[in-house]
Amino acid sequence: MILYPAVDILGGRAVRLRQGDYASGKIYAASPVEAARRWEAEGARALHVVDLDGAKEGRPVSLGYLRQICAELGLAVQYGGGLRSLDHVDKALEAGAARVVIGTVAITDPDLLDAVLGRYGERVAVAVDVRDGRITTSGWLARTSTSGSDAVLGLRERGVRSFVYTNVDRDGMMRGPDPDEVTRVSELVSDGGFLYSGGIGSVEDLVTLARLRLPNLEGAIVGKALFEGRFTVAEGIAALGGESAPETAAGPAQG
Q1: Strands, DSSP E only, in 11-133?
Q2: Model pTM?
Q3: 8 belongs to the catalytic site
Q4: Catalytic hit among 8, 53, 171, 205
Q5: Which CATH architecture does the domain made up of 2-250 adopt?
Q6: pLDDT > 90? residue 79
Q7: Is 87 a known active-site residue?
């Protein structure tokens, strides 16, 4: 399993939110690049970057930071937030992202989802962000009537095989994941793969995920707990089994 330290970008700074509330943002680094360097220095080989401004505006805003991180650091970066057209996805991958994470359009624009999957395949993951059991979109600002389970099943039918599942209610709370929920997601994803995000606050939480021994749980995304010093990147990697970034995520960009 892979540890993905998170760098969430808001107003040009690295921040963390609580339960997706933009008003709750706490600044942890004056620059996203500074935060990324910290995680690399602690042993990270992969990074999860979210353009919160882009998610709110519906277009990528932080591609400059993405480009700088990818150019200066040896990290496999997955990038999401505001990627709502094929051109947006093209630009994120051209900037150096190893993988893109699309959210809103995967739910609202099936034709675009098909086009993105057709062009980039395994370099695309879909974000399934769930609050109160329902899908949220537009940077977690809009709630839909679609259940998380129905969304995963529908996306699998359209050919999605890589997911980033976030429990928004637990996000930033550091109260631990729900093992039963993670197991249910694994069953829904079936022969695909997924990363889990939401509520991880200790090394023990990562050990709990590892002990589930779910073959398609590829890793975990951790933000606030790392920034708050609950554990180090190296400790997190060890808790998950010590694997490095997957070759497909670290490969060169494709046009």
Answers
A1: 13-18, 21-29, 46-51, 76-80, 99-102, 124-131
A2: 0.88
A3: yes
A4: 8
A5: Alpha-Beta Barrel (3.20)
A6: yes
A7: no
